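Last lecture ended with a question: if I hand you only a sequence, what can you say about the shape of the protein? Today we answer it with a concrete record. The protein is Avidin. Below, first the input exactly as provided, then the predicted structure, then a couple of comments.
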Amino acid sequence: QCQLNGLWRNEQDSLMEISTLRENGDFQGKYLTRVTLSGGCAHISPLKGIQQQPGEGGWPTFAFTVRWDKFSNATTAFTGQCFVDAGGKETLTTMWLLREAVGSLKEDWKATR
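The predicted structure:
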């Protein structure tokens, strides 16, 4: 069975650490992104999420948010699923939606990626 807690690295070399995974599926941790909207250096941001409790032999689905409050006025929501291959390697697959603050309703069209 796949365990979300621990250290994860993505294709862009960003790191995510899930340090607390509670019995009810709630988790928290931190995200060290190497990709920023401003093109600046890496920053650590807090994350909070929840894991769907898997049934027998199931792979858990999960969702979490990252607040980029130290260097950007944006928030990202991730959703995904955890898998384990025949060799025991754990992999997270995710999709994300980033919302950047804009100054007016007229600019809303460009705020979500």
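Comments.
1. The chain is about 0% helix and 50% strand.
2. The beta strands are 6-9, 15-21, 26-33, 43-51, 61-67, 74-84, 90-100.
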